[in-house]
Amino acid sequence: MSNFPSIPNSLLPPAETLDTGSVSSSTASEQFLRLHLVPETTALLPMRQLTEVLSIPIGQIVPIPHMPAWTIGVYNWRGEILWMLDLGHLIGLTPWYQQGSGTSNHSVVVLNAHNPNTNSTNSKSQMLGLVVNRVEDLEWCDRDLIQSPLSSNVNAELVPFLRGYWLKPNGEMLVVLDGEAIIAAMANW
What we know:
Blueprint lengths: L28 E10 L2 E6 L3 E8 L13 E7 L2 E7 H4 L14 E10 L10 E8 L1 E9 L3 E2 L14 E6 L5 E5 L1 H8 L3
């Protein structure tokens, strides 16, 4: 595997506060999709919360006025309206349109998570399109090795969506996001 860009220090807790641990063969692993929010920021989303990865031409997303700045618009996905959010901008990073990627397509991850704020008799999965800089590959991670950082060491806009950090054996640190927290936060706007 090639070396990947690291997470900016503004998003990371001090390395000495984290335990690298060792992967035990008896612990449960979880599969994550590795993606870049901005070119130098790598994050993971649980595969069980994802439906599909799309490449959408920029002109096919319809902007909606009077929405939060991180809302790009809506897209007709399989005959349904899919809200499209700039995930990096949502958590306090450079907005997608300011990254100067020069591409004519959006890389989109379709998030399909259960909103814990709905009552159990009417629980339904909700979907969002998360626009990211690029999608890379899959990672297996021992769930016990995902560590919760102290909130004082983390960008305040990231905290509500953060499941924790995974410090890989090679020293690379990855942000682990929680799709259900993203869905729950969207219910409030």
